[in-house]
Every structure is written in C-alpha cells, then in structure tokens.
C-alpha cells in the first residue's frame, strides 16, 4: 500500500489542490499511486512506468511514457525531457486529463481545449520545433498501427500522407506547385480538430479511487 | 393543385376497387360453349361471343388492394415534397395522418367499412423494417457512451409514467361526476402502461427532420427503442392481472423477473441470430447477389423468434443488427452494402408512411367512446408525467455523468417523447371483453394525435428558438479518425498508469477479445487482422474515387490544388534525359492501351468492390495518374547518382496496368531496378491501380525493405492506386525519392 501521509504533506496537497483544481481526495489517491509506482521513492523514472503491466499491449506505449517526462507538459516554458519526475510533475501531467467542470465560461472552455490539444500536439511533435512535419506524423500513424503487422506498416505511410494532405488543404487552401507546407502548427492542429469535442472526451475519472486495492472503484 | 388531383383520382379508383364492381364477372376466358347440339334449339343454349376482354377482379383482389394502398401512400409522400413550403412547416407524419383521415372519411361516405390497422399486420409486417433500419444504422459510439442514461430513461422513466398516469386516472375515475366509476385500478394501470411508452416510429419521423445534436437524438431515440421490453412486460402483466382481478406480491416479483427475462432474452436471441448472420456472410464470396437477403432474413427471424417466446422483439432486432454489422460489413461487397442500406431505408420509409395513413383511417373507422374529462386528463397527464420524469431522472443521472445534460437538452428530451402507432396497436389488441376498450382507444388516439401534431409541429420552431445545438455536419476526416484511435489508446494508457480499471480499460479488453477470437471466426479471409484505421482509410478512398467517377470530374478540377508535392520535402535531383525518355515511353505505353474487361475471378482478401466498379474507378484513376505523371515526371523521378551498383542506378518502378490480361505469374512489369545496397534508404514503387484481378501482385516496399526484390508482391491489393513514397531520412541529402501523387 502507499505510505501514509504525514501532516506536512497535507499542507502541500492543499497548495497543489489550489493550483491544479483537483480535490484533496483525488490528490491523495494520485499520491498513493505515485508512491506505489515509484516504490516509495521520491521520484519516478521511465523504468517505473514501463513496468506497468497494463501498458504492455498499448501500441503508443512509448509516446505515453515520454509524455510524462516531457518538460513541455509540465507547465514550464522549457523544452526537452527529464529523466525523473517528482509527484508534483506527475500531478501536472494528470491535470491534462481532468474533465470539464460544469458552468465554465466560453473562455475557460476554450483554454481547456487548448491545454488538452497542446498535450496531444506535444506528443506528436517529438523534436519540439513547434510543428508536426510529415515524418513525425508518419511515425504517429506507424505507431498506432504497429500491432497490425506488415499490412499496417505499408498503409501507415499512405494514411499519414493522406492525413497531411487533408490538413494542408483545410488550412492553406490553394498552394502553388512549388510552395512547401512545412508541417502542422499548433494553430492548424486546433483547426482540424475543431469538431472534436476534446474537452469532454479527454478525461479520466479520478473519482472515488478505491484506496484499498488502488484501483478506481467507479467503473461507469 | 396537383395533390388534390392525385388524391381525388386515387380515392376514386380506390372507391371503384373497394366496391368491387366488375364490368363483367365471368369465369376464365375460355368457356366451353356448348357443343352445338344441332338438335337443341338455340333458345336455351345461347352462344356467347368469345370474350376478348374480361375482368376478373376476385382473382387479384388481395394483392391488388395491397399494392394500391402502398402506391397511394407513396404518391402522397411524393406530393408533399412537391409543395415547397408545406414540408418545411409540417412534419410528414402529420400530413400522412391527415391523408389517412380523408381517405377514411371518403370510404365511410361511400358506405364501406374502412380498414383498421390490423395489429397482426402492424407488428409482423410494418414495424420490423423500421426497427431494423434503426438498429442496423445505430451509431454505436454515442449509444454505448450513453447507454446508462438511456436505460434509466427507458426503464425507470416508463415505469414512472405508467404508474403515475394509471394511478392518477384511477383517482379521477373515482370522482363521481366523471361517470367512470366502473373502471378499476388494474384497467387504469393497463391503460397507463400502453400510453406511457415513447414510440420509435414517431420519434424517428419527427427527429429526422430537425437535425438535433447527436446526444439528445440518441437519448430520445435509444429510449424509444429500449422501452419496448418494459412495455411488453407491463402490458402482459396488467392484462393477465385484470383478468384475474387481484395482485399478490408473488405476482409482482414474477413481473420483475419477467422483465429481465424479456429484455435479456430478447437481446440474446438477437445476438445469436446476429452471429449466425455474420458467420454466414463469411462464405458468401461466391454468391454476392443474395448477401443482402441473409441480413434481412436473419434479422426477421430474430424478431419472429423472440415474438414467439413473448420476448422483446424490438430489442432482438436491435441486438441482431448491432452484432452483425461490423462483421458483415467486413465480408460483403460494396454493392451489397449499398443494397442493404437502400432496401432498409426504402422499406422503413414505406412502412412508416403506411402506418401513419392507417392511423388516420383507423381513427375514422374505430368505435369511439368519447369522454371529455378522461381524454383531456390523459393528454395533460401524459405531458406532466413526462416532464416530471425527465427532470427528476436527469437530476439523479447528472451526478454520474461527465457531460451533464443541460436544461435545453432536458426540455427536448421531454418534449420529444412522442407516442405513436405502437400504443394504438397495443390498445387495439385489448380483447373486446374489456368494457373500457373503446374509451381507451379513443384516448390513445387523442394522445397520439396531440403528440404528433402539436409536439411534432412545434418542436422545430422551438429548437430554433431555444438555439439548441444542432447536429454537426462533418465529413469523415482521416485526421479525426486517427486522433480518435490515438485518444482511445492514450486514455487507456493513462488509466493504466493511474491504476484505474475504467471505461477504456474494459473497452480495450473487449476489443482485444474481439480481435483475437471473434473476428477470426466471422470474417472471411485475412480481413480480420485489418485494423479499423486502415479499413476507414480504404473506405474513404473508395468513396472519393466513386465520387469522382460519378461526377465525371478529372483531377484537374478538384478544388484543392494541394498535392503531395507541397508536402514532401524537396531537393530532388534530376534524372538524365535518356532515362527520362525511357521512363516516359514505357509508362505511356502501359497507360494508353485499351482496357479490356476482365472476368471477375473469385475474390480473395482485401476485396472491396466488384469488377464493374473497378472498371470505372480504375479508368478515372488511370487518367488521373496519367495526367499527374505527365506533369510531374521530370520533377520526381530521381536517380541516385552516386550509387555503386552492378546495375545503372535506376529506381524500380513496378507497374501493372489493368489493360492487359495476364496470368498470376507473369506480369509485364516495368522495372526500374533500384540497386540494393543497404544504404539506400528505400526503394520506390510506383504502383498503378490493380483493382480488377485479385491475383495481381503489387509490390509495395516499406522503408524497411532493403531490396526491392525481397518483397515480391505477396500482397494482393485490390484497392485504389496508392502511390507510396518512401523518402526516409537520408543523410546524404539525396532523399526525397520520387513519388507520385495519387
């Protein structure tokens, strides 16, 4: 089980709760999970995450793990990756998966959208240059289809090409034959996923986590 | 106006037919005229002239009438849409009921007995197509995401409606002044249960025209489908009880058990037939023409079987359609898919039209017992109980939902609870011994009229007024599809990190189970391994190509002038003149041959379409590719200049045109050999379309393919031309292989 919370951390949790919008209970549960994953150490490394059995069959496993260590997701204005993260950073990454609360203003909703889409964008933009170029997009599709055998690999290129074409068509309209479309910028990304109601889809239920078995009890 | 003329002529001919006055009723044409007994006088044996023209109506009476009714109904439908403003204001269902009323009135005026909507006909013939159409094309994702809410509305909402209405009506009947003191509680509850169920036919008819957002649509619609189980149980229960007269606790308990049996049993029966249908479709590759029939017949059998056991037929149909669809669609040809779609739409449209017209006619026909208080109270109570039910349930449900239901949503859900023909038929089924039958029927009809006319007509302006979110019109976008899948995996992963076995975890497990075990059995050939993304992509390409064929456009008039060249990184060295000419010549030669029709051979995997379609599609692709090639060839064919290799550094272009007939082994491929030192990032294959012959080999080299020879086209590609380019990151700056836009 997780380590018991000391009184000192209560205060930290409150501070974190204010900053991230999670409730104290949720933060407590996430903390317990963190401790379980990190074997009661202070920091989490890639190997700790890689050892989670539930991730084994996931085709985009590597990207998910990288996302946790990507500085851009940690609400800091830096790029690059870190080797280990502490609880606070872990929590920061988790904030991207909060559901949209009721009664948000339009602006808040828009900000939430941008935040979540930014997370996705960072996952695709592996060289941190602010655009997703064709190569990176191809890699995304290849990873998605990586469990599909040879058929997947061959069509991955075609699919990625078609997708890129679509983005270019939607965002740039007409282009001269010798113009070059560098890649998907974040604004383009927002545009093509305009109809995607990501603020409702991209969430994980952090509700009542069953602390006894460290699995979230509410399954629906 | 044209409608009136149509109506008059139709009704007059109906009159003619209905009365059945023949011109000359005679036996079959050949008559044995009496042998002219010469000794017989001609007095008794009048020799009739050979009847050149005779009418024998009785012979064809039944089918004739049926066909005429259907034709009348469809002509009405046609007429409505010719009147420009009418169909925008009044929903079709209302118009059809009015027509029914008029026709019924006409028949009555003539003195004939207007036909009533026979319950047997309704439940066995008219209802199944509509439900199957709804179930087969049920949008799965929103349905499963909201299934909890839908079930709560369907089960608890209907129960609440039934008891609330039944109870209050009974209380009403106790009042002396109403004059209905003979009605006991059970009868009222029975009535309540009949009238409380939201009707899928009416909901479909009205909601189809208002294009409301997906969430509300699926909520109301799903509820109307799933409440059938509750209705069936309550109806049977109360009918049994009202015969007996008393209710015990055991009976109530049995009722609850019955509910589970009815609903789960119905779903089970439907699922079994669904799997059977999917399994059958695995083997239909040689008999494509009858594929749609399997879908229809298995579904109908599911419905009939469950009706046989008094299970919920509607749920069986829905389950059957939902279960069989993904597998069947992976197996059947594109044409069969289109056929299924259109037949279902056609039948459900006819059914719906007939149902509404018959409702109108039955209103004129049926025995009526009018009691102002009862009827008015029923209508009001219907509305009140619905609104209360929705609000109350939403309050509870919103605690468990991520996407809460707003007040607007609630209003539409409440207002969209229309009653329809199912209620009427159930009422009609009541045995005549019920002394209140006529009263109930009248009240039911009034409720139906009220909901369909008043609510149906006003819902559209209300939707506009309240600015309820409309359905997003979006084309299928490959980016969205990619990100839907990506998001699914991402959320599963994060749930895993969280240690949370939630929604996505179980969905993932189900998918994996589906892929490893179920698909293997139910999908023909090797298709079952195909991931959804690829299937989606192919479907999109197919649609685009077919669109191009149908519109007769060539790529030069395509709106977007962005093509692969804009995306691909540049810096392509030029090919030497000689090579270029050679390449051009060969390519042109292959392109300009006449196409010959190919016999369609047996299908193997990756089959997407038949020979005919492939012809058209391939023709377009040919022309398109030819033009593209002509334009871009000089830019994009490259020769990596500094390769040491035994052969001249020319890239391999494997090229199969569909112009020539050749056997599986020998292909007149055009080869530009790519020398195969491993440092070469990749080979290029320009692949022409090879749709027609399943056994054609196409070479696709991936980036990992070092030598082009190694991947000797063991992959059959019956799909549209795909020009794959593998630029690969090349350190020598010589990357950016040639490619061609497709």
From TrEMBL, chain A:
It is a lipid-anchor. The keyword Metal-binding applies. Its main location: other. GO terms for cellular component: cytoplasm; lamellipodium; nucleus; ruffle membrane. Keywords: Calcium, Cell membrane, Cell projection, Cytoplasm, Differentiation, Lipoprotein, Membrane, Metal-binding, Myristate, Nucleus, Protein kinase inhibitor. It comes from the Eukaryota. GO terms for biological process: cell differentiation. One of its GO terms (molecular function) is calcium ion binding. Residues 112-147 form the EF-hand domain. InterPro entries: CHP3, EF-hand-dom_pair, EF_Hand_1_Ca_BS, EF_hand_dom. Coiled coil: none annotated. It is found in: Cell projection, Lamellipodium; Cell projection, Ruffle membrane; Cytoplasm; Membrane. Belongs to the calcineurin regulatory subunit family. CHP subfamily. This is Calcineurin B homologous protein 3. It comes from Oncorhynchus kisutch (Coho salmon).
Automatic annotation (TrEMBL), chain B:
Residues 667-742 are annotated as: Disordered. The keyword Secreted does not apply. Residues 689-702 have a biased composition (Basic and acidic residues). It is a multi-pass membrane protein. The keyword Membrane applies. It comes from the Eukaryota. GO terms for cellular component: basolateral plasma membrane. Keywords: Antiport, Cell membrane, Glycoprotein, Ion transport, Membrane, Phosphoprotein, Sodium, Sodium transport, Transmembrane, Transmembrane helix, Transport. Residues 70-464 form the Cation/H+ exchanger transmembrane domain. Gene3D superfamilies: 6.10.140.1330, 6.10.250.1040, 6.10.250.2020. Residues 558-638 form the Sodium/hydrogen exchanger regulatory region domain. The chain crosses the membrane at residues 66-83, 89-109, 121-138, 150-173, 185-206, 218-238, 250-280, 300-323, 344-366, 372-398, 410-428, 440-463. It is found in: Basolateral cell membrane. GO terms for biological process: regulation of intracellular pH; sodium ion import across plasma membrane. GO terms for molecular function: potassium:proton antiporter activity; sodium:proton antiporter activity. Belongs to the monovalent cation:proton antiporter 1 (CPA1) transporter (TC 2.A.36) family. This is Sodium/hydrogen exchanger. It comes from Oncorhynchus tshawytscha (Chinook salmon).
């Amino acid at each position: 089980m997780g380590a018991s919370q000391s009184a000192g951390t209560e205060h930290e949790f409150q501070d974190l709760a204010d900053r991230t919008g999670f409730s104290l209970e949720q933060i407590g549960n996430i903390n317990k999970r963190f401790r379980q994953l990190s074997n009661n150490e202070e920091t989490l490394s890639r190997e700790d995450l890689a050892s989670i059995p539930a991730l084994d069959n996931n085709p985009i496993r590597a990207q998910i793990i990288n996302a946790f260590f990507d500085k851009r997701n940690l609400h800091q204005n830096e790029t690059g990756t870190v080797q280990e993260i502490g609880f606070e950073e872990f929590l920061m990454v988790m904030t991207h998966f909060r559901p949209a609360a009721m009664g948000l203003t339009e602006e808040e909703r828009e900000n939430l959208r941008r935040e979540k889409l930014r997370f996705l964008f960072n996952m695709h933009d592996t060289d941190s240059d602010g655009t997703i170029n064709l190569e990176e997009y191809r890699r995304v599709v290849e990873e998605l289809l990586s469990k599909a055998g040879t058929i997947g690999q061959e069509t991955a290129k075609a699919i990625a090409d078609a997708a890129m074409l679509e983005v270019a068509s939607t965002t740039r309209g007409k282009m001269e034959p010798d113009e070059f479309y560098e890649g998907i910028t974040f604004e383009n990304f927002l545009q093509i996923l305009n109809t995607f109601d990501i603020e409702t889809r991209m969430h994980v239920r952090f509700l009542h986590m069953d602390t006894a078995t460290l699995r979230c009890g509410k399954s629906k | 106006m044209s409608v009136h003329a149509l109506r008059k002529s139709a009704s007059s001919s109906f009159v003619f037919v209905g009365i059945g006055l023949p011109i000359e009723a005679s036996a079959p044409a050949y008559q044995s005229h009496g042998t002219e007994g010469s000794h017989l006088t001609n007095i008794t044996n009048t020799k009739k002239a050979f009847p050149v023209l005779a009418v024998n109506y009785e012979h064809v009476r039944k089918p004739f009438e049926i066909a005429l009714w259907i034709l009348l109904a469809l002509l009405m439908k046609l007429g409505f849409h010719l009147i420009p403003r009418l169909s925008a204001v009044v929903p079709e269902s209302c118009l059809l009921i009015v027509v029914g009323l008029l026709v019924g009135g006409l028949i009555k005026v003539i003195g004939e007995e207007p036909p009533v909507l026979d319950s047997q006909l309704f439940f066995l013939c008219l209802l199944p197509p509509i439900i199957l159409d709804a179930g087969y094309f049920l949008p799965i994702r929103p349905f499963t995401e909201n299934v909890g809410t839908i079930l709560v509305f369907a089960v608890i909402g209907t129960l609440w409606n039934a008891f609330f209405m039944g109870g209050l009506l009974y209380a009403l009947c106790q009042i002396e002044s109403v004059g209905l003191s003979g009605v006991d509680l059970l009868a009222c509850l029975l009535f309540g249960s009949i009238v409380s169920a939201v009707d899928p036919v009416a909901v479909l008819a009205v909601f189809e025209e208002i294009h409301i957002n997906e969430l509300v649509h699926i909520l109301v619609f799903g509820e109307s489908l799933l409440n059938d189980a509750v209705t069936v149980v309550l109806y049977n229960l109360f009918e049994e009880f009202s015969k007996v007269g008393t209710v015990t606790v055991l009976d109530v308990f049995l009722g609850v058990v019955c509910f589970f049996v009815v609903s789960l049993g119905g779903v089970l029966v439907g699922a079994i037939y669904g799997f059977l249908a999917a399994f059958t479709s695995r083997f239909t590759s040689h008999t494509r023409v009858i594929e749609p029939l399997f879908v229809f017949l298995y579904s109908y059998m599911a419905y009939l079987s469950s009706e046989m056991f008094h299970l919920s037929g509607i749920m069986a149909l829905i389950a059957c359609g939902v279960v069989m669809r993904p597998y069947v669609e992976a197996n059947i040809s594109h044409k069969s898919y289109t056929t299924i779609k259109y037949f279902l739409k056609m039948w459900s449209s006819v059914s719906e039209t007939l149902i509404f017209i018959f409702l109108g006619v039955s209103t004129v026909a049926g025995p009526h017992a009018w009691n102002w208080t009862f009827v008015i109270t029923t209508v009001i109570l219907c509305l009140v109980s619905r609104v209360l039910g929705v609000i109350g349930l939403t309050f509870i449900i919103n605690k468990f939902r991520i996407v809460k239901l707003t007040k607007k949503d609630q209003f539409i859900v409440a207002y969209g609870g229309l009653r329809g023909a199912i209620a009427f038929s159930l009422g009609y089924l009541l045995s005549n011994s019920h002394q209140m039958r006529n009263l109930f029927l009248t009240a039911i009809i009034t409720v139906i009229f009220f909901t369909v006319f008043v609510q149906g007509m006003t819902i559209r302006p209300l939707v506009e007024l309240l600015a309820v979110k409309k359905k997003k019109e979006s084309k299928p976008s490959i980016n969205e599809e990619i990100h839907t899948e990506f998001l699914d995996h991402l959320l599963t992963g994060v749930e895993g990190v969280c240690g949370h076995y939630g929604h996505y975890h179980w969905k993932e497990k189900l998918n994996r189970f589906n892929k490893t075990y179920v698909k293997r059995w139910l999908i023909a050939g090797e298709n079952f391994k195909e991931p959804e993304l690829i299937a989606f992509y192919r479907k999109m390409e197919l649609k685009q190509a077919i669109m191009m064929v149908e519109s007769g456009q060539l790529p030069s008039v395509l709106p977007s002038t962005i093509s692969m060249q804009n995306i691909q990184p540049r810096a392509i060295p030029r090919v030497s003149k000689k090579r270029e000419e050679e390449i051009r010549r060969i390519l042109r030669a292959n392109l300009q041959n006449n196409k010959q029709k190919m016999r369609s051979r047996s299908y193997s995997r990756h089959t997407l379409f038949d020979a005919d379609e492939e012809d058209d599609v391939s023709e377009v692709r040919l022309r398109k590719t030819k033009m593209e090639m002509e334009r871009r060839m000089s830019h994009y064919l490259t020769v990596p200049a500094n390769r040491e290799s035994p052969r001249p550094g020319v890239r391999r272009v494997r090229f199969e045109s569909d112009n020539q007939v050749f056997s599986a082994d020998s292909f007149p491929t055009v080869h530009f050999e790519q020398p195969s030192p491993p440092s070469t990032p990749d080979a290029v294959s320009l692949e022409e379309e090879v749709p027609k012959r399943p056994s054609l080999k196409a070479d696709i080299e991936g980036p990992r393919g070092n030598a082009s020879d190694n991947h000797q086209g063991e992959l059959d590609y019956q799909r549209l031309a795909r020009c794959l380019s593998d630029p690969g990151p090349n350190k020598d700056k010589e990357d950016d292989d040639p490619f061609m836009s497709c």
